[in-house]
């Protein structure tokens, strides 16, 4: 019985910090989505200089581990800015995590957005132009909504990856669920490490399954609308 | 004080490069064993082997639903517990302290990557048309022969781009090996950086090393893919010329 209680209290203690993990997930998802769409459009439209920069940025983000990027932003950025007399050492650690997660994920998301955008097809644009829409209007009203539905499976995978990536935030001292585990271990003097990591892996697993379910429901709902539209 | 101490960075590059063999070793070992296990798991799932199918579905879901870092910790702290239990019940005397960190890393990364490879191999095997298998059966091959000679070579070609991506992902994932106390590129950079507060320099060096490795791998994979594709096209051309020469063509 006491064993059950131990496991239960561990669960509660770790779950206590789940909102922080979800907060990081949500904020960096929104930021990286905005940045990702911008990068995707730059790459599709091939704006000369910006295209080169975007390609360089993508290559860097996708070829170096997130951990390196996180450390570069957390340790390197203040050192770099200090040379320009800007002191950001007093900023909250969370901001560094959000910056590096957003920058990292934007690179991956831009490819998701780009493939979905290309999948919608040029004729949709032409149709929108023919009724007098501007590029921005066509993009917002016609292409992006369709691209969003097409990109849902990839987007879902990306969100799950992002959730898993947030587990690195504890390395710079964020108290998310991984950080909480560290604290509990410190209080226990390192006893019961195995149990606690099993608990946290179950929590991550559960969250991932939930995200998966939400995405697949969303997919079904949005697809249904599409079918009825084409039939009418 | 200069923003970036380039001299220091260049001077310390060789020290960080010492971690590259370990990084590559973990990636290669996990990749090779992952490919073997992944293929077996994929076959179990495709042929719906009764209990194993269910088991592997859960395994793949778990591996893909938890961060690698957590898996490494679970494995690292789970093995000693397991060995303790084993020693108690079987009277053996294995000591978890004698296991080298590198072995932990090899096994943990293999367990992780097998799940991803299994899904890649399953998709590629499914991409090969069922007619190929039927044709092989019709000329008297067993299922095993057909898999080995006909289906797998084709599936492998389909899987190649994804396998390349997995390998590059694996190279990046090795930066987490600090969790099982392996000292690779990232850990070396961290140690040197902590020594003299040269964070920007050392992490830039580490980033450049990873970038270079990934770029080289990308070039290699593109080259191999092109080679394989050319070979396939050549074979197809040969087949058509042969079939033209055959008198009994329906």
TrEMBL record, chain A:
Coiled-coil ranges from the UniProt annotation: none
Domain of life: Bacteria
Keywords (A to Z) from UniProt: Amino-acid transport, Cell membrane, Membrane, Transmembrane, Transmembrane helix, Transport
SUPFAM superfamilies with a match to the protein in the record: MetI-like
Keyword DNA-binding set for record: no
Domain ABC transmembrane type-1: 18-215
Transmembrane segment boundaries: 20-42, 54-77, 138-156, 168-185, 191-215
Pfam short name (any one): BPD_transp_1
Topological relation to the membrane, as annotated: Multi-pass membrane protein
Subcellular location per the Swiss-Prot or TrEMBL entry: Cell membrane
Family: Belongs to the binding-protein-dependent transport system permease family.
Name of this protein: Amino acid ABC transporter permease
Automatic annotation (TrEMBL), chain B:
Entries under InterPro entries matching the protein: AA_ABC_transptr_permease_3TM (IPR010065), ArtM/GltK/GlnP/TcyL/YhdX-like (IPR043429), MetI-like (IPR000515), MetI-like_sf (IPR035906)
Pfam families from the UniProt entry: BPD_transp_1 (PF00528)
SUPFAM superfamilies documented for this protein: MetI-like
Transmembrane segments: 20-44, 56-79, 99-116, 155-180, 200-224
Signal peptide (UniProt feature, chain positions): none
CDD domains xref list: TM_PBP2 (cd06261)
Domain ABC transmembrane type-1: 20-221
Predominant subcellular localization, coarse grouping: membrane
Keywords of this entry: Amino-acid transport, Cell membrane, Membrane, Transmembrane, Transmembrane helix, Transport
Membrane topology: Multi-pass membrane protein
Gene3D superfamilies noted in UniProt: MetI-like (1.10.3720.10)
Superkingdom to which the source organism belongs: Bacteria
Protein's UniProt keywords contain Isomerase: no
Location(s) in or outside the cell: Cell membrane
Entry's family note: Belongs to the binding-protein-dependent transport system permease family.
PANTHER family for this protein: L-CYSTINE TRANSPORT SYSTEM PERMEASE PROTEIN TCYL, MEMBRANE COMPONENT OF AMINO ACID ABC TRANSPORTER
Name of the protein this chain belongs to: Amino acid ABC transporter permease
């Amino acid at each position: 019985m006491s064993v059950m209680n131990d496991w239960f209290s561990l669960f509660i203690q770790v779950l206590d910090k789940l909102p922080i993990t979800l907060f990081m997930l949500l904020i960096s998802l929104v930021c990286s989505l905005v940045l990702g769409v911008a990068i995707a459009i730059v790459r599709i439209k091939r704006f000369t200089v910006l295209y080169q920069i975007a390609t360089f940025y993508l290559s860097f983000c996708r070829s170096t581990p997130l951990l390196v990027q996180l450390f570069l932003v957390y340790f390197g950025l203040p050192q770099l800015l200090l040379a320009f007399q800007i002191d950001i050492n007093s900023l909250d650690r969370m901001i560094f995590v959000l910056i590096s997660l957003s920058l990292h994920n934007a690179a991956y998301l831009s490819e998701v957005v780009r493939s979905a955008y290309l999948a919608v097809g040029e004729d949709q644009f032409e149709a929108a132009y023919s009724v007098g829409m501007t590029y921005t209007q066509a993009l917002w009203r016609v292409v992006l909504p369709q691209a969003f539905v097409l990109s849902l499976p990839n987007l879902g995978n990306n969100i799950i990856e992002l959730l898993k990536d947030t587990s690195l935030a504890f390395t710079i001292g964020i108290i998310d669920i991984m950080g909480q585990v560290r604290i509990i271990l410190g209080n226990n003097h390192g006893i019961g490490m195995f149990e606690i990591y099993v608990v946290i892996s179950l929590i991550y697993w559960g969250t991932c399954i939930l995200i998966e379910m939400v995405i697949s429901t969303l997919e079904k709902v949005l697809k249904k609308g599409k079918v009825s539209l084409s039939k009418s | 004080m200069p923003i970036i101490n380039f001299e220091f960075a260049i001077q310390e590059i060789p020290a960080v490069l010492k971690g590259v063999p370990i990084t590559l070793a973990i990636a290669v070992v996990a990749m090779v064993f992952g490919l073997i296990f992944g293929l077996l798991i994929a076959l179990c799932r495709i042929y719906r082997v009764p209990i194993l199918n269910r088991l592997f579905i859960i395994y793949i879901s778990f591996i893909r639903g938890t961060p690698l870092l957590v898996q490494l910790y679970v494995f690292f702290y789970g093995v000693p517990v397991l060995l303790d239990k084993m020693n108690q019940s079987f009277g053996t005397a294995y000591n978890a302290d004698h296991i080298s960190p590198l072995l932990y890393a090899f096994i943990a990364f293999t367990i992780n990557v097998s799940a991803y490879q299994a899904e890649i191999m399953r998709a590629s095997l499914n991409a090969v048309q069922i007619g190929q298998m039927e044709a092989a059966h019709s000329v008297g091959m067993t299922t095993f022969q057909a898999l080995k000679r006909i289906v797998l070579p084709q599936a492998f070609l389909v899987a190649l781009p994804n396998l390349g991506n997995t390998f590059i992902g694996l190279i990046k994932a090795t930066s987490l090996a600090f969790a099982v106390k392996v000292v690779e590129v990232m850990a070396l950079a961290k140690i040197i950086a902590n020594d003299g507060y040269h964070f920007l320099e050392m992490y830039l060096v580490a980033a450049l090393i990873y970038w270079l490795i990934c770029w080289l791998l990308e070039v290699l994979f593109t080259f191999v893919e092109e080679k394989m594709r050319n070979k396939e096209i050549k074979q197809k051309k040969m087949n058509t010329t042969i079939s033209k020469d055959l008198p009994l063509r329906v």
